[in-house]
Amino acid sequence: MALQRATLSPDLAKAVLSRIHQPAMLLSLDRVILETNDLFDERFGDGTVSRGHPCHELTHGLSLPCKVWGESCPLDRPGETQLHHHTAARRAEYDEVVARPVRDFRGRVVAFLVVSRPVGLA
Predict the structure, then answer these.
(1) Where residue 21 sits, what CATH number does that domain have?
(2) What is the pLDDT of residue 16?
(3) % of the chain at pLDDT higher than 90
């Protein structure tokens, strides 16, 4: 698991994410949710555990990645803030989303920190 390769324990990941005051998640390189903060769970969750699910399932309610449906994926352009359309949170909304790489001690990207800022209804 990417968290272990990054030497970031799940407890430490949850503690770091809890300090972010926007919906945030830690994603594996294959876009699977490793950890989320409470704000993410409130905005995109349905009361079930989000860990282990592909991000597009919770943020868009889709069975395939965003780019298959013609929407850009923040992981494809890390560091760039993107306007992203989310539909899984009971109504269609827009967020500004930025993904930042999480690197191991050798500088290899092992995960992504993704932070969303809600900007309004679609």
Answers:
(1) 3.30.450.20
(2) 85
(3) 18
Q: Which one-letter amino acid corresponds to residue 122? A: A
Q: Which of 91, 84, 15 is closest to 56 using CA atoms?
A: 84
Integer Cα distance of 96 and 116 in angstroms = 6
**pTM for this predicted structure:** 0.81
CB 84 within 8 A of CB 105: no
Q: Is 34 helix (H, G, I), strand (E, B) or coil?
A: strand
How many folded domains does the chain comprise? 1
> What pLDDT, on a 0 to 100 scale, did the predictor assign at position 2?
46
The confidence score (pLDDT) of residue 75 equals 83
Residue with the two structure tokens 């272990």: 4
Helical H runs in the chain?
2-5, 10-18, 38-44, 55-60
C-alpha–C-alpha distance, residues 118 and 122, integer Å: 11
| Structural domain containing residue 15 | 2-121
pLDDT bin (cut points 50, 70, 90) of residue 73 is confident
